[in-house]
Amino acid sequence: MPTAGPRSGDAIFASVERVNAELFTLTYGATVRQLLTDLEEVEEVNKQLDQMGYNIGIRLIDEFLAKSNISRCVDFKETADVIAKVGLKMFLGVNATVTNWDAEGTCCSIVLEDNPLVDFVELPDTCQGLHYCNILSGVIRGALEMVSMKTEVTWLRDMLRGDDSFELQVKLLKQVPEEYPYKDDE
Amino acid sequence: MGREVAESCVDSLLTEMVSTYCHRFYANKPELAARRIEAIGYQVGHQLSERFVFRYTMERPRFTDHLEAIKFICKDFWSELFKKQIDNLKTNHRGTFVLQDNRFRWLTRMSVDPQNESQDNSADGENKAAQATSMHLYFPCGIIRGALSNLGIPCAVSADISNLPACSFVVRIKA
């Protein structure tokens, strides 16, 4: 029997349960605001958002793999493409592009021109150091770690800081070879 | 149809937000965690209500009494969030309203912390799971309170889950 191939981000997004994006956007905004009140330091909020994203990413990867029907990527290039074209689309409903590859193929940028996290958001001057979307970089880092890729994910451009798009740099630090949990003879 | 995201985005965010406040920030002070989660819900409800009312009242007059505002929460507001209306509305006509959702989506979909779920049979595990569920419910309670407050109705909101998966929200309007 032929196995079904990977599914496109559009097809998955069309088939999953969806909700009003305002609920998501405002819930995220209210959470960030509450964290700013409770933690006071912008840098602490950045860390917390990244941690929350990481925790979400390590759980969301299962749903991603199950729904996308993607079994493995041949290299980091394919991985980045899959995040941009399938992952971001199937959860957030947005399109992203991959660009700015380095010569080794271990570092690239994912560019988003549209991002539901920041609809109706304006940062006050007191929050200049805030990486408002840090949860997203955390999600990507967490999800990749579950498929054996240690990465560093940083924001290079941010529309809330006046840039024309969001640019997320994903750098592969270490690829842990996949091992089977048990050996046959044990 | 407005913009949408996958439902798992909202589920994941809520689960993580609740867990951040309950386990990381206020592990030993559940009442403080509850207050923060409710406050986040309040802000969301307040803002959502502002947006939905604006759309809703473009062709209709503003609400003239409490019942009309509550009905707006039960029908239009709830449908925007959960694609269904509140199933049953009761009132004692003295400022208390009970809004029942027979199958509250956030209770059926949200995963409670697995370490609590795995301890089946143990009373402690059940207790913890019940506590986790009630923590999750501070968020929708806050949403309803925020939404009504935006409509000029100060109130207190609590949740009753004695009839799972049904969930009743008890709204007590402050005189």
TrEMBL record, chain A:
Keywords for the protein's UniProt record, in alphabetical order: Endoplasmic reticulum, ER-Golgi transport, Golgi apparatus, Transport
Transmembrane as UniProt keyword: no
Entry coiled-coil feature ranges: none
GO cellular component: cis-Golgi network membrane; cytosol; endoplasmic reticulum; TRAPP complex
Compartments where found: Endoplasmic reticulum; Golgi apparatus, cis-Golgi network
Function statement: May play a role in vesicular transport from endoplasmic reticulum to Golgi.
Name of protein: Trafficking protein particle complex subunit
UniProt xrefs under InterPro entries: Bet3, NO_sig/Golgi_transp_ligand-bd, TRAPP_component
Top-level taxon: Eukaryota
Any one Pfam family match given in the protein's UniProt record, by short name: TRAPP
Similarity section: Belongs to the TRAPP small subunits family. BET3 subfamily.
GO BP terms: endoplasmic reticulum to Golgi vesicle-mediated transport; intra-Golgi vesicle-mediated transport
UniProt keyword Metal-binding, yes or no: no
Subunit-level organization: Homodimer.
PANTHER family: TRAFFICKING PROTEIN PARTICLE COMPLEX SUBUNIT 3
Automatic annotation (TrEMBL), chain B:
Gene3D superfamilies (alphabetical): Trafficking protein particle complex subunit 3 (3.30.1380.20)
Pfam families: TRAPP
InterPro entries: NO_sig/Golgi_transp_ligand-bd, TRAPP_component, TRAPPC6/Trs33
Superkingdom field: Eukaryota
SUPFAM superfamilies: Ligand-binding domain in the NO signalling and Golgi transport
GO cellular component entries: cis-Golgi network; trans-Golgi network; TRAPP complex
One of the protein's GO biological processes: endoplasmic reticulum to Golgi vesicle-mediated transport
Entry's family note: Belongs to the TRAPP small subunits family. BET3 subfamily.
Protein name: Uncharacterized protein LOC103492220 isoform X1
Provenance organism: Cucumis melo (Muskmelon)
Lineage: Eukaryota, Viridiplantae, Streptophyta, Embryophyta, Tracheophyta
